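Bug: token stream looks shifted between consecutive jobs. Job 1:
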Amino acid sequence: MNPKRVITVVLMVFVAVSIIWLVVRDVSSQKSVPASDQPSSARQLMVYYFHRTARCPTCLKIEALAKQEVEATFAAELASGRMRFQSINVEGAGNEHFIKDYELVSQALILVDYRAGTQHRWKNLDAIWDLVDHESDFAQYVRMEIQVFRGAA
């Protein structure tokens, strides 16, 4: 076999493997939340905290404050399954699509209204960054936004 033919075959194999890799990556990125994490009830409010792998103290504080407020104020909804709080690393395998889905530019607290397992609407609580150093204002903001979001069906 001459060297030109060998190079051609190697390049064709490389292109084929690259195409397969791109297709597999695209299919896996279209996965949403794992089945066990998908909303199951007829109507469910998900409170997602999206973060990256590298986490700063402020990012950790936002997550802790949001989770604390949700657990303190909406304990009955959490216990019944009508509401869930979940932290998701958008850099985790299969989670990259959340960046596009919710137009994320940084760590974010997102409310999502699911009906029969299908996303109906969502809202980004973008003032969390402005309020993180004022814990009572932060808690009130998260609580009020969730209440308004739930009420605006």
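Job 2, same session, no restart:
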Amino acid sequence: MAINLQKGGKFNLTKQEPGLKKALIGLGWELKTTQALDLDASIFMLSSSGKVPVDEFFIFYNNLKSPDGSVQHTGDNRSGIGDDDDEMVLANLASVDAVIQEIIIIVSIHDGIAKRQHFGLLADAYIRIVDVDTKREILRYNLGSEFSDMTEVEFGRLRRENNEWQFQATGNGTKIGLEGYVNKYT
């Protein structure tokens, strides 16, 4: 049975799931509207400086794999139609380059500000972590409705602390666009 986290909740993947080798980070949402929305999952792999050490550690629809091969985006879903994960990221935490201390998971609405689209047009948004080998869902964080006027949401963070990986359900909404995150972390 999966652990359900609340905003700010933490889970030590290394201690509580020692058999976890490869993780699937699934991101899902349902549309409340017939209006087409294109949501994009993006990953920022940060060093201890809080910045991406080289541009290739910014994983998104135009750069699907980290240079160390440890994190791979499975591709852009432009409709969000379907019941399962809308976008997925595969992570082999044991292979993450030693310089990387934090992995941030962002979901943004493509051109959300220009199109006047926001997370209020979505329902049942979540992030979950699944053990790829056993297909077992380890944890889930369901986002609330507090992001109704936001165009991006940081869903969660994986942090390396004392050689252990911890997941934190952050749930921080913004209106800075994906470019705002790129400016912040590169």
